[in-house]
Sequence to fold (400 residues):
Amino acid sequence: MPEQADLYPCTIALHPIHDADHAHVADRLVYRSSGVSETDDIMVATARALTSAVYELGDCGLLGERTLFIDLPMVWLDHPELLPTPASRLAIGIADMPEVDDGLLAHLDDLRERGYRIILPANLLKPHLEAILLRTDIIRMTAPDELDAEILERLPAHDIKLLVENIEEQEELERYRELGCSYYNGRYLANPSFIASPLRGRHGNRAAQIRLIRALYEDDSDVDRLQELVVQIPHLHVAVLRRANSVYYNRSGSEIDLRRAMQVLGLIELRRLILTLTLGSLQPSSRIILRMALIRAFMCRNLSVPFAGLDPEDAFTTGLFSMMDALLEEDRDTLFAKLPLNPLIIRAVKDRSGPLGAVLTLCENHERQIEDSINDMPADRLQRCYMSALASARALMNNL
Fold:
C-alpha cells in the first residue's frame, strides 16, 4: 500500500480565559493548519486540532479542571458522533455562523440536550432575542455597547454569562467588569500558549482503519475483534490508553490495559475518537516495523503462558511497546512520560528488569539467533512460540 504524503504541521493555540477575579478558569482553542484549502480540508484541520487538544493533551488540556471553549464549523455539527467529550467540560461556538433559521436552532437544541454549553455572538441577540435566550449559555462580546441595558437585565434569569475577548488594557477590563462579564480573554491578562504537532510522515494503515470503523458500527461488535484491529494502528492504540487513563475516565488512578480501556470508553466514545483520528490522518505506522512489533508482542505473550505470575496481556503490551517509539517516531522516554502504563511494563521495556523484562530479553535473544542463524532453527519451545507469533501477526496483518 503506498504511503500517504507528509501532512502539514498543525498549530493550536490555547488562549487563557479568566474570571472577574483573574482566576484562570478556561481556555479557548484556536487552530490553524498551513496549506489548508477551503474545501473539505476544514474537517481535517478541525480533527487535528481536536486530536491535539483533547486526545493528546489529555489531563494537561481538556481533561483538567478548566473548560475548553472552541468554535466548530457547521459541517462538523452535522456529524454529532464527532463531537468531543466530555460535554460538561466544553463550550461550543460556531466558526462559520449561518443565518438563524430552523436548522441552526435544531443544532443548538441538540447540543444543549447533549450537555454542551453554547457560545453565540452578541450581534445575534437583538434580532433573534427570544430564540437565542432559550438556546445559549455564553454571549461573546467585542464592544461594551453591543448589548443595551434591557437585554443585559434579562440575561441573569436565563443564567447566561458574558465573554469578552481581546482585552488589551486595564480601562477596558474595568468597563466590562461594570457590565457583569464572567469571562475575560486577552493578551492584557495572559499570552496564549502554542502547541504544534510534529512535522513527520504519517503512514496511514487505511485498510485497518476501515475495518475498525466498520467493526465499531456492527450490531454485534466484539471487544476481542476491536482489540485486534486497534493494535494494528499504534497511534490509535496510544490514544485509547491515554483517553481511558485520564482523570475523567479513570477515577481509581490504577493503570488500565487496552482491553479494559476499550470497555471503559465504550462504543460511542471509541467511535468518536477513532473517527476523529482517522479524519486527522494521525495514525502513523510502518508495515515492516509494525510486523516486527506484533511478532515480538505475540511471542512475549506465548512465552508468558506457563508462568502463573505473569499476565499474558502485560507480556503482549511489553513486547509491543518495546518498539512503539520506532512505530510512532517519538522518543521513548517522552512517550512513556505522556502515557500511563503499568510501571512493571515500563521498567521491563527500559531496563529489561523483572519477569516481564526477562521474557522480553528471551524474545529479543531469539530474534537475534534467527537473524544470525544459517541453518534451520531447532524445533524447541522458543521456536514454537516464535512460529506461533509469526502466524498470529501474519493473520492480523492479512491483506493490509
Notes: The chain has 17 helices and nine strands. Strands lie at 10-18, 24-33, 67-72, 90-94, 117-121, 138-141, 161-164, 183-185, 193-196. The mean pLDDT is 80.
